[in-house]
Structures are given as C-alpha cells and as structure tokens.
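Exercise: predict the fold of this chain.
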Amino acid sequence: MSTQYPSTLHTTLVALSRQPISTKLVFDLKDCASQFGVTLHSTSGQVSNGAYHQERWLIPQSLETEQRELLRSIASNHQTDLCFLRSEVIPSEIRVLAMDMDSTLINIECIDEIADFTGKKSAVAEITEATMRGEIKDFKESLRRRVALLEGIHADALEAVYRERLRPNPGAVELLAGAHQRGLYTLLVSGGFTFFTEKLRQQLGFKQTQANTLEIIDGKLTGKVLGDIVDGIAKAAHLDQACLALGCSKSHSMTMGDGANDLIMMNGSGISVAYKAKPVVKEKADAAFDHVGLDAALLLIS
C-alpha cells in the first residue's frame, strides 16, 4: 500500500482488461513512463483466461504516487486497469482474502437503502459518501448518526433490501469460488450489518464475517447499534487476528475495499485492491479496478 517502493526492489506492472489489450495502450504506457525516466520491460506476451486479458512489464525502480496515477489514467482511457505488484510479494504465498462488503462485494450501501424505507436515503447517503471519501474521520460517530435516522423502521425492511436491491458485484461469486479452490481463508469485514454479512456468508461461503448488529425491539429498529462498532481499526484487527491464527503475517493477505475506512486494513497487506473506489483509496492501493470484475484479482495470485 505504500506510495513509493524501495529503490532496491522492482515492481511488476500488470494490465487487466475485458478486451484484448491494444498495441496503442502499450505504446502510450511506455511513452508516458519514458517521460519520467522509466522503462517498461515486457515479461510475457498478452495472455487471456477467457474472461480477462493481461499483460505484464517489469519496472526496475520505484514510482511516485503521481506517476502511478498518470499511468492508470492512460489505461483507463482504454478500459484497462493497472496493478503495481511489489517484488517481495510472492503470489503463491497469499493465504487470506479479506474484503469489505458495501460497494465492494455488493452493489449497494445497505444503510442507505434501509433509510429509503423511511424517506431519509438522501440524508443518510450524504453522510455515507462523506465518510467513504475520508471527509468525516470518525467512522463510529458517522455510523451512530446514520443509524439513529433508521429509528422506527420495521425490521422487514432488511429482508426487502437483501431480496430486492442487494446484488453481488460482477465477479464476486467467481472470486470466492476461486479463492476457496486455492485454499484461501476468506474474511468479510464490514462497517455494515450482520443481517447482510450472515446471508452473504451462507451464499458465498466466507469462512468468517464481522459486522455491526442493529438493535431491534418489537420488530422495529431502535436507531442504535449493539456492542462495539466495527470501524477501520477493527477491520484491520480482525485481519491481523485471522493471520495470526493461520500462522502467517498480514503480508500474506490480499485485501479489497472502496472507502477510507478500509485503508487501515489494506495498508501492509501483500496485495491491496481498490474496487470502484474513492480517490483516496485508489492512490494508495496496489491495484485499482474500475473496468474488470472482482474475480480479476485471482490473476494477481496465480
């Protein structure tokens, strides 16, 4: 997750796309890199697994955040995503997949959709967006403010959101199936709610899920959260504990998220993936996915 790699180490640049990677993109990437004194050395020709196309280059020096973002911008013009893999990361040694739920694994922010049942979606969504952008620093306070707006909503709204609005993001099912096939320990860590993480655990087979519990009395939400709130620090702690139990370090994990509260969890992981993420997350992540699906991450550990 660091924005600059040690100069003694190289970086592997990986381009991922749903379409064949064009020679124009390759030319543009090499031309851009040359402007800040970097040469891209091809390590293999373009390969495809049927769903995605990828091409790799070796960069024998470090890159600044601004340089990586410039290369990503060029790739994005060709509907292609980039990943910058550090040389010390050994893909075959990744043992844990830890990911966020709302807007990463799934297509919605559940709390915003629940609020829609009482006409307060815009008010809640405004706080959610500011929090994910990193403008509201205290996630716990942000969550309490939003949950308070849910007071009085019938608990049936949770099931309705799950059944009618919640969908796994493209590639989610394939990602989990592939991770389990590779023997990875899968962890869903969410600042959202256990009602949804439990259903997704059953649906997708996560080995462990952690989230917040909404208080429900007489069939209605009270506007309160029970117990300790799962915030960014807690997400990172759950990942650390999972790695400890497996006898590995955080560097043996792959993490995925989209908002500022995912950064602590993502920092220090072997491979960090920002999925359709806020700029503050993209610029710090090893990979930024805006065009490929979640399952393209499997190519990074193959």
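Check your answer against the key: The domain at 1-88 is CATH 3.30.70.260 (Alpha-Beta Plaits).
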